[in-house]
């Protein structure tokens, strides 16, 4: 057994949905215990826990596992905005490679219904964000301005954006873990309530959603199934924006993807299935090019070709993505890898893509004024 | 609330201020506050308040909020180039490439007012 290899031994998630009457321990414990069963492990096999969360408050990981009788093992609480879950996996990888532990549980959880609805609040910890927030900066506006510029430069119509929502809503209709399970049409997407032009409500991931996801990483493969390996794990931070920046190039994600491909020793053409951060429809189109699955300027053609649908050459967001599955922030990055593990193992049922060997998860985190994104992560899994 | 003196010059009319890095000449907006540990590497620089709209959106708050739709966008200021975010007002719907004048505003700190083409 290669001691530098990390295996995903077990995965599980709750349905992403409004669950306002369920508290964090019950929500997360469900994912944790099912992931352990999936790995054929018990709680005694876990040597450390990484808990990803954004708005749940301090020591949430300890609260979640207090009643699981874990005898005081280290629990690390991780926050990196929407990339918290992916960052937790990344940190767990480091600890495994450093041989601090052999088996780690990563859990991501978020209860956005506790915030009462509306857009995710900006943190006003710096002068720039305070100045911009007083002018009306909200998270959807960043994506909306990207969409405006995208349609302008590419000479495209809003129906292109809507096509992303239609694809991912259809995928979500096949996924029992998704919040939105009703297929839709371009006309319905475009006629839903306007949020931030040109983005309508159905082009924005739901803001009222709760959920948890868990996976078990280990340097030992024991689950009896064909091993799913973590081939690359990259987390990058955004850089200060310049006046010359192109808001369509998603520099941070392109950079993270290049590093991940190099770490895994593969290229974009080797990827068989992708879960990416479609918080808004425009994001998926931009990430096609940032991840290298479409050449610069050819994202629209890739979408129109149907090749990113479940039956296509490079299915994107077979789970329904953030748009349909939902986006409980701390859980999202973990849930992407749960879905991809199911896909690689052929366990995705109705939404199963055709015998994938290599899968990619991409997750961005945070909007802070003056940088592309605060964080972006790319993970590559293989079987 | 008066004009935010942090990023407006004292002249009349006041001009927006940025921090210019002494070596790279890169502009930061808003400028660093005086007690920033980075302030010594920068000098305050008056900016050309007339710029070009790079991108925009119109936000439609929920009906129950009672807030009417409002336009916001990124405007590229020339000369000491910098891209600044803010409210877009007047002159009908915004279009990429429109010219805007950056002005102080007691509610938003600053606004961009559309300059009607002759």
Would you spell out the secondary-structure blueprint of this structure?
The complex is a heterodimer of chains A (383) and B (118).
Chain A: E1 7-13, H1 24-39, E2 48-52, H2 60-65, E3 75-78, H3 84-97, E4 103-111, H4 127-134, H5 139-154, H6 158-173, H7 186-191, E5 194-196, E6 199-200, E7 210-218, E8 229-237, H8 251-264, E9 273-275, H9 281-290, H10 299-305, H11 321-325, H12 329-344, E10 358-365, E11 375-382
Parallel strand pairs in A: 2-3, 2-4, 9-10
Antiparallel strand pairs in A: 1-7, 4-7, 5-6, 8-11, 10-11
Chain B: E1 17-21, E2 27-28, E3 42-46, E4 50-59, E5 70-77, E6 82-89, E7 99-105, E8 109-114
Parallel strand pairs in B: 6-8
Antiparallel strand pairs in B: 1-2, 1-3, 4-5, 4-7, 5-6, 7-8
Describe the 3D structure.
By secondary structure, chain A is α/β, with parallel strands linked by helices. Chain A contains twelve helices and eleven strands. Chain A has helices at 24-39, 60-65, 84-97, 127-134, 139-154, 158-173, 186-191, 251-264, 281-290, 299-305, 321-325, 329-344, and strands at 7-13, 48-52, 75-78, 103-111, 194-196, 199-200, 210-218, 229-237, 273-275, 358-365, 375-382. In chain A, strands 1-7-4-2-3 form a five-stranded mixed beta sheet, sandwiched between helices. In chain A, strand 5 and strand 6 (199-200) form a beta hairpin. In chain A, helix 3 (84-97) crosses helix 12 and helix 9 (281-290) crosses helix 10 (299-305). The model of chain A has no long low-confidence stretch (mean pLDDT 94). With 118 residues, chain B is mostly beta strands. Chain B contains no helices and eight strands. Chain B has strands spanning 17-21, 27-28, 42-46, 50-59, 70-77, 82-89, 99-105, 109-114. Chain B has a five-stranded mixed beta barrel. In chain B, strands 2-1-3 form a three-stranded antiparallel beta sheet, with no helix packed on it. Chain B starts with 16 loop residues before the first strand and ends with a strand. In chain B, 36% of the residues are buried. Classes of the chains: A alpha/beta (383), B mainly beta (118). Chains A and B meet through helix 4, helix 5 and strand 5 of A and strand 4, strand 5, strand 6 and strand 8 of B.
